[in-house]
Structure formats: structure tokens, C-alpha cells
Input
Amino acid sequence: MKAHSSLLGFRVKDRDELASVLATIRASISRFADPFKVILSYADLPDEIAAADGTKCIAEEIISQGRQCTLEGYSFQGNIKVYGIVDSIHDRNRCSLERYEYPSSLPKRIRERMTRSACAVIEAVGLDDSPFNMEFFYREADDFISLLEINARISKSHSPLFDKVEGVPHNEVMIDIALGRRPDYPVR
Output
């Protein structure tokens, strides 16, 4: 799946709006689909994935309500570890990111649920020998967590926070894994 900065993403309230945005998507999707198809042509894909090609889209529920955070972790030789959770603090309108805060102030039981979920997802998709980060939302009203995205990399934006709090930026995790070493991060 490929997405980029919510381009060709629309909030739709009814079928009429859906019909309208589908016309826009169909007129513009080749901007993303054509290069993506080229990349896919080099991959040995399962039949059900190959059939989808680069022009398929999904409709999904808005999950961006509640508190947002990012779990930073790694998988090394089948062992999955989450080593930090960073809160994303938004402005009053929930439109713009104001700042990151580390460590997370989410309740411990929620951080543990998210960590278990993140580990289960990483194991299920078979990601190994890689850093990762996963963005989650937590809705306190109904105690619901939802997964927004997974990245097979560290977050560069979080490195200064880890450096200030842990004494070393978490780039160290990425370097250790690239060198075939189990990360020892953070050293407490």
C-alpha cells in the first residue's frame, strides 16, 4: 500500500460526495499509480496482491480522535522490543502538531496494550532485523486504541528527544541492526 501526505484523501459524508471525489481520484491517480506499478513490476508478489495493481484505493473510518503517540522499537533475530513511546501534542483545533513529548504520559496500562499490539503486528507481518515505529491513537471515552501506520525505520524527528532524555539519539538502534548487533538501547 502506498500513501503520501493525504494526497487524494478526502473526508466524505455521503454517497454524492463519494461519487464526486472518485471522479477526482480517477483523474489524478496515475500520478502515484504509474511509478508504483513500475516498482511493483520488480517484485515477486502473491497473486492477490498483484491483481490489485497501483490504482486501487481504500475507504476507511477516521480514527484520528483522541491522543496520538508513536511507539519506537525494533525486531532483531525474531525478538521484538519497544523501547520508547512519544506523545504527539496537537494544537487546540487538532490540526497542527505543536510538539512531541517523551516519555509518554499515557497511562501505563494503555502503553502496555499498545506495546502488545505493536509486537503482535510486527510478528504477523514478519518484519525482522529492522527498526520500526508505529503511530497509534487512544480514545479515552471508550478505551479504544487504533493503529494509524507502521514504518520500517526510526523517526528522525524523535532523535533529539531520545538524545536529551536517554543521553544518546536512537539512531544507534538503526546502526546496531545494520551491523548485525542486538541493540542495547536505551542503556539505563
About this structure: Residues 67-178 form a domain with the D-amino Acid Aminotransferase; Chain A, domain 1 fold (CATH 3.30.470.20). The chain has a mean pLDDT of 90. The chain has two domains: 1-60, 67-178.
